[in-house]
Amino acid sequence: MIRLDRVGKTYEDGTVAVQELDLQVPRGSLVTLVGPSGCGKSTTLRMVNRLIEPTSGTITLDGDDVTRVDPVALRRRIGYVIQRVGLFPHQTVRTNVATVASLLGWDKRRTRNRVDELLTVVGLEPEQYGDRYPHQLSGGQQQRVGVARALVADPPVLLMDEPFGAVDPVVRVRLQDEFVALQERLGTTVLFVTHDIEEAVRLGDRVGVFEPGGRLAQYDTPARVLGAPADDFVADFVGADRGLRRLAVTAIDDSDLEHPPVVDVGDSLVDAQRTLEGADARWAVVLDASGDLRGWVSRERASDGGGAVVDRTRRMEAWVPRDAPLKDALAQMLQHDAGWVAVLDGSRFCGVLTPQTLHEALRRSVGADHQGVDPSAFRVDAAGPIRA
User: Could you tell me what percentage of the chain is helix, strand and coil, using 3-state DSSP and rounding each to the nearest 5?
Assistant: First the structure.
């Protein structure tokens, strides 16, 4: 979708902002560019929509050389969102969002329908917020208006330059989650600049790490950037705690799960006790006939008199969905002071993660990235990950 071939930018005073940049952004993907201040990431973004002209190289958008098309027409094909939003203070929310539609000559009905649709999509009820002015909105609400304005003409590409940097951390995380869900739903191709490595790996399908001087030091998946830094600069930039950050981008795999004893919610306590004794286990997972999780029962409670398992079942407080990252599982363990976390596919029980299996899953994933193989090709022992 977006392709940069040997792109460079050198200013008249000799300052090199970007050098020999090769970068491909696949259609429908969200690519983040990260690095210290002055490393060329924002310059790269602005060269794509020709707010800054490249000195060398070629930039193509969906096969078209951007330097050979009218810049105004080009920018109408590309949404652009910046940190301070850039809303017109004297215009209402609806008018701000409709800016590009007006430039394109849309009629009032089409414009109104599209604006109201997008305000709803970004979580701002049109009847409540449409006639307000920017100063009547919170910082997070203003960012949502900026995103809606950028999307009004349904551009195939969205450029975002530190869009969430001006809002508080709590709102920032919520906006990130909402934006990722929106991007996946719309299928928009996004090039996203940030100085925050945590934001970069949390949002990006791929991450480009820039170093001072405008060189692209590494362009890879978030997991590989964290698990297998390309050089010392990348390793230092992502930080010594990159292993913890790696938890946020490492998915739970079926091979990571343990499978404790299982009893049916309708079983008698006598049967449950026999199951636990036979497995030499302290507790069992309680499921119903459909395999849905109903809770857990301990060996002590199972042996406490007669009756049915349902009478002694405890609620499973620590659990995560099947598509959650390892970070969420660790958070559940810590929050509930639990020795294991249930993994669910909907309500269906898949297995449990323990501190040991969670640690092994992370080591296996990192080791696989270092060797460039699938994690299933690794086994983990006390000495570390070993290629099978």
Answer: 40, 25, 35
